[in-house]
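re: that complex we talked abt at group meeting.

here r the seqs, copy pasted straight from the sheet so there may be weird spacing, ignore it
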Amino acid sequence: MARKLEFTFQGETFSAAIHKVDRTKLYGSIDVETLDTEGKRCELATLANDGRTLIPYGGTALGYVNADGWWVDRADLKSVDLDGNDLPTVESSFSKPTELSLKVSVEDFLDHSIRLCYALEGEGVSEALLKELSEGVIYRIDFSYRGGSEADPAFVLQGGDGTPWLLVGVKNEFTFLGLEQAGAGVSEDDEAEDGDGGDDGFDFEML
Amino acid sequence: MPNLNVSDSRNRDAVVKAESMRRETVVRQVDAQGENAYTRKVLKATIEQDYDRLLAAAGGKEDALAEMLVKSDPEIDFEKCGLFLWDVSRVFVTQDEEVVYRIEQTEIVRNPDGSEKERRPRDRGESNTDADVPLKWTGRKVSKADAFKRFVFGTKLQIVHVNGLTFDFLYDMAKELADEKCLMLVGGGEKGNEPLVFRRGSLPYRGFLEGRIDGDRYMLILHLSNLELKKPAEVEKAEEEAKAVPLAEDPKPSKKKTKKAPKKAAKPKSDPTNS
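got the structure back, here u go
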């Protein structure tokens, strides 16, 4: 059963079921089967840095330690930014209606890399909203599936087939480049070496 | 930053750079004393403690194994359990848990429903973004207004110049695209119809160039997509099943501001799957 998100648009509240869509659901998938020279199936395992200890799937775990190497329980940890300030916590987007009011341009939307796609389905989706979406309007919201330290930028828009979508993304910091701004670092091999060519810039040592 | 060998509308080509500009939020984890906490990979059990080895040690009898587990702790290697792991390697092992040094890999292509479609030898495509043959300016344009409705752009790279000549080259490309307010499909290979592969064996993507101009400055973005924005068959089926549920069992969401609204028949609504 798909979860439902509640939205508020021009004073009306409605809910829409979200159906996650990815490549596997659209196109299928590819599994890789590995066999040895005798045709027997092989599996991946981890070899420790001693070159002898084999660790099967599920034989490792991730944990947290402090600077002294002592184990720290995850429940005792707190998320902070680089300066040590507490990060603001956000509620799950499923806990309350999300308002659709912030329109963004196509360029603003294209500045984001989309990592999750949800098709929206709901009998009560606002007619006024559907009309705006059909005209190419894109709404931006903050989305957090489980709640936590940060919400992701997300967009509500209409696809080419008329389906409303919720697309969750990550912002890219694109910048305009001028001639003086070297877009890429020049490798050290390409740089001219400082020579002892004297004040007039000629290097007589090479002669 | 990977190199990109790309051509423009006049079939001039140059090697430029592609840079990821993804914003990453730096989050630190601290303990109750405010000290930094670090993630570490820890060893839980080696292959000597897995089920097959323990069962063999118990003579192949599960009852004996159960008794072993109760009386002692053969599933824990007290010398190794809890070790921090560094510089590990990934290896293939047979079902006899021996390291294999020569393998053959087969791709099993599955349909969206999970059924097998075909089997073929594994093909790790070579990179074509920095090859001798430059990426082609295909001339296939998609307006921005259509592009965002049809494709999901999961990765983006900013194309950057490396010297004055490539600055003019990229500026002109960006201006041409900005004037037409469109995205341009770029393709790999001799015919310019292959998807972009950045590293050997990596996922292929369709690449779309977008240009923006701000005076004498440019911005050229390569949008990468391997997913169309459309509903798969199973989602359409789920929606049809949801609509088939009788009204009495499916409380319709209220359109009023109050949370509790009197039950009333839903308004007839257009099918969102109709384009």
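couple things i noticed - Residues 4-21+62-171 of chain A form one domain. Chain A has a mean pLDDT of 85.
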